[in-house]
Design brief:
The chain is of the alpha+beta class and 381 residues long. Helix content is 40%, strand content 15%. The protein contains twelve helices and ten strands. An eight-stranded antiparallel sheet has the order 3-2-9-6-7-8-5-10, sandwiched between helices. Strands 1-4 form a two-stranded antiparallel sheet. The mean pLDDT is 91.
Length: 381
């Protein structure tokens, strides 16, 4: 037993830096963290108010913080809503407890879904006006702003997650020593990943801020898929692509001493048609061009399945048309929920080829066009 090996004044085995007597000596007899307290702490972390506009623009900040929509509300989410609601995966303690450890999509009002309090009202309006108030024309400024907002949210959520380190480490209260060790090991692994994510996001945030302030949009690369209609699944996020759609490894994101290449994506309605925009900057060319080139080789008939595998694998910030979700078979719904759960579990044994065809079929979205912006492929499909 750990208690027999450590003296009261020794450093605790968990790595907290505290003395054993002030940390884990009687952890097993302590009252477990109550679910409502954990829920309150999480809500507070993910509702912190700030403005993530470039530092040079901070003097212009207004006092009011907006509930900024990562997917445009008026032009996009309303296109798929039913009675003002869409299905979303809400990562709350209540949802997890209610569904035995799994997050199940639930109907959420448009005023709450897709939002984060990461910009003041002035900058939320002034920065994103070209995508909020204009029809999407695939220009590089619009593509960049979609990526910029997605990245701002990624920065916001990573910082919020980092602030929950103590909560994760307190999850072993009232548990056996073996359980304590397992929980602390998981918390340690998560802290390493979150800290690396915060570091990498801050690195790219400085680069993206510079592009925005200097308006150097000519360097922006995008691969845009235009659809005849609004996509039934809308989302916004950022990812360090590990594999392409053919199962080829692109980069090792487990090597945390290096900053991996970054790709942003948004699925939305651009005013005339649906659109999925993948966007990155030149320093990420090596990975991102190979990634979208593998997507370009997917046929129009199979493109919907490929895109949805990607969305559900790499983004929790997804919003689904109620009629679409409810029309899926129980088997397909279960497959989606399982994929979301596995992708969010650090210790899960994930498939080696996470984006290759898994046999799950969805209603096909009609493709209008595909376009490369700011770059060219080495070979066309």
């Amino acid at each position: 037993m750990i208690a027999k090996k450590l003296g009261r004044n020794d450093r605790c085995w968990c790595g907290s830096g505290k003395k054993f007597k002030y940390c884990h000596i009687d952890r097993g007899s302590q009252e477990p963290v109550r679910s409502w307290d954990a829920s309150r702490t999480m809500r507070k972390a993910f509702s912190a108010q700030t403005c993530l506009a470039p530092d040079a623009w901070r003097p212009e900040c207004s006092k009011q913080i907006s509930r900024a929509h990562t997917v445009p509300k008026s032009s996009s989410l309303r296109q798929i809503a039913r009675d003002g609601h869409v299905y979303a995966f809400v990562p709350s303690v209540e949802n997890i407890a209610r569904n035995k450890g799994v997050i199940v999509p639930e109907l959420v009002g448009l005023n709450r879904t897709s939002t984060f309090t990461g910009f003041c009202s002035f900058h939320d309006d002034s920065i994103f006006a070209p995508v909020e108030k204009r029809t999407f024309t695939e220009d590089q400024e619009q593509c960049f702003l979609l990526a910029y907002r997605a990245h701002a949210r990624e920065c916001y959520t990573k910082l919020a997650s980092a602030s929950l380190s103590d909560l994760r480490r307190q999850a072993d209260k009232g548990r056996s020593v073996d359980a304590q060790m397992a929980i602390q090991a998981l918390a340690f692994m998560m802290d390493i990943g979150v800290r690396a994510g915060v570091r990498d996001n801050e690195y790219y945030k400085k680069i993206y801020d510079s592009v925005l302030v200097t308006r150097q949009f000519g360097q922006v690369r995008s691969y845009v898929v235009q659809l005849e209609n609004a996509p039934d699944v809308m989302c916004s996020g950022g990812v360090f692509p590990e594999q392409d759609f053919e199962g080829k490894e692109l980069q090792d994101v487990g090597e945390i001493t290096c900053t991996p290449h970054l790709l942003h994506f948004t699925s939305f309605h651009g005013g005339d048609r649906g659109a999925i925009a993948f966007t990155w900057l030149p320093e990420s060319d090596a990975t991102c061009i190979a990634f979208v080139e593998s997507l370009h080789r997917v046929s129009d008939e199979c493109l919907t399945d490929a895109l949805l595998r990607f969305f559900f694998e790499h983004c929790e910030n997804v919003h689904m048309k109620p009629d679409w979700w409810e029309s899926l078979s129980v088997g397909v719904q279960s497959a989606v929920i399982k994929r979301m759960a596995l992708s969010a579990t650090p210790t899960a044994d994930r498939p080696k080829s996470i984006l290759t065809d898994d046999g799950i079929r969805f209603p096909v979205w009609r493709v209008h066009s595909r376009r490369c912006i700011g770059f060219e492929f080495s070979g066309r499909r």
